[in-house]
């Protein structure tokens, strides 16, 4: 939080650290810790491919610093206000109750993530924008917005912090300083996980930011999967914030490395064939 406050000095936008918490963002129970918002978490496997006897070499890729990359997202600045117009204002951000469209692609995960329930669902800004992008690309119909809770928004709230941490992380990697690298990872991950209703962070209470940042990480991974698919690679698995399994030459899309724009291979394995 100290780093965040330092990078906000002289910032163009003043954000609220303790706006009233919308009931939709309050936990429903101490044990579950769940509220009404769906983050679009990915947990997808290409099941038709796994029953295919054709032999394929799969590379499991890891997206670097997924939560740090998610700092580049539209965050609401002030208190969320209610809107029932059913329209989306790109200058605002928050949470939205939508009727999701059908997803009819067996070779790509739904941008809504691993949601088993049907019907209307509360989602965050990154998930809505991702689904709208899918609609523009002809992959599905546009989601129908039923109501929203939003505030004026900007992508710049965490931008200086993101750039600073990315620079320090890059320097630490170049110097082989794994202690600093792991410390930074723990710091920005804890920053996100405690900015909601947490007793460990008493300097900010923005559960809407927490959900939006997590959703942006899932959306970023989905975009990587879609990029691989468009380039002719076969997408085998997309999981969490950083795991993408593909068949094909992934190096045509990403350089190998640990920078935010790069991907690193974790391991390879074989699908299909006589030994499966």
Which helices and strands appear, and what pairs or packs with what?
Blueprint lengths: L1 H6 L29 E2 L4 E3 L1 H4 L5 E8 L2 H4 L5 E2 L4 E3 L8 E8 L21 E4 H12 L7 E11 L4 H16 L3 H16 L13 H24 L3 E6 L3 E5 L15 E9 L5
Parallel strand pairs: 1-7
Antiparallel strand pairs: 2-9, 3-10, 3-11, 4-8, 5-8, 6-7, 6-8, 9-10
Let me know the largest β-sheet. 6 strands, mixed
* Total helical segments: 7
Strand segment count = 11
Query: Approximately how much beta-strand content do the residues carry?
Result: 15-25%
Order of helices and strands: HEEHEHEEEEHEHHHEEE
- Low confidence ranges: none
Q: Indicate the structural class.
A: alpha+beta
Round the Cα radius of gyration to an integer and report it.
20 Å
Protein name: Dihydrolipoamide S-succinyltransferase
Question: What does it look like?
Answer:
The chain is α+β, with helices and mostly antiparallel strands and 276 residues long. 30% of the residues lie in helices and 22% in strands. The protein has helices at residues 2-7, 47-50, 66-69, 125-136, 159-174, 178-193, 207-230, and strands at 37-38, 43-45, 56-63, 75-76, 81-83, 92-99, 121-124, 144-154, 234-239, 243-247, 263-271. It is globular and about 55 Å long. The mean pLDDT is 92.
Short structural summary:
With about 280 residues, the chain is an alpha+beta fold. The protein is built from seven helices and eleven strands.
């Amino acid at each position: 939080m100290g780093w965040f406050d330092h990078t906000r000095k002289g910032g163009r936008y003043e954000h609220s650290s303790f706006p009233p918490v919308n009931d939709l963002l309050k936990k429903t129970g101490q044990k579950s810790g769940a509220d009404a918002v769906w983050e679009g978490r990915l947990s997808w496997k290409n099941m038709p491919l796994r029953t295919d006897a054709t032999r394929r070499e799969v590379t499991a890729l890891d997206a670097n610093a997924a939560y740090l990359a998610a700092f580049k997202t539209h965050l609401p600045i002030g208190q969320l206000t209610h809107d029932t117009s059913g329209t989306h204002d790109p200058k605002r951000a928050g949470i939205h109750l939508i009727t999701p469209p059908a997803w009819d692609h067996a070779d790509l995960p739904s941008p809504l993530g691993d949601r088993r329930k049907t019907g209307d669902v509360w989602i965050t800004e990154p998930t809505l924008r991702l689904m709208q992008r899918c609609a523009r690309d002809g992959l599905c119909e546009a989601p129908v917005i039923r109501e929203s809770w939003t505030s004026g928004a900007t992508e710049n709230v965490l931008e200086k912090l993101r750039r600073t941490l990315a620079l320090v992380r890059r320097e630490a990697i170049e110097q082989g300083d794994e202690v600093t690298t792991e410390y930074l990872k723990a710091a920005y991950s804890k920053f996100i996980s405690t900015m909601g209703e947490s007793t460990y962070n008493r300097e900010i209470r923005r559960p809407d930011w927490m959900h939006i940042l997590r959703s942006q990480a899932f959306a970023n991974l989905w975009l990587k999967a879609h990029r691989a698919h468009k380039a002719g690679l076969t997408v085998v698995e997309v999981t969490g914030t950083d795991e993408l399994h593909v068949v094909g030459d992934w190096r045509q899309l990403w350089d190998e490395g640990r920078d935010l724009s790069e991907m690193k291979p974790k391991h390879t394995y074989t699908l299909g064939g006589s030994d499966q």
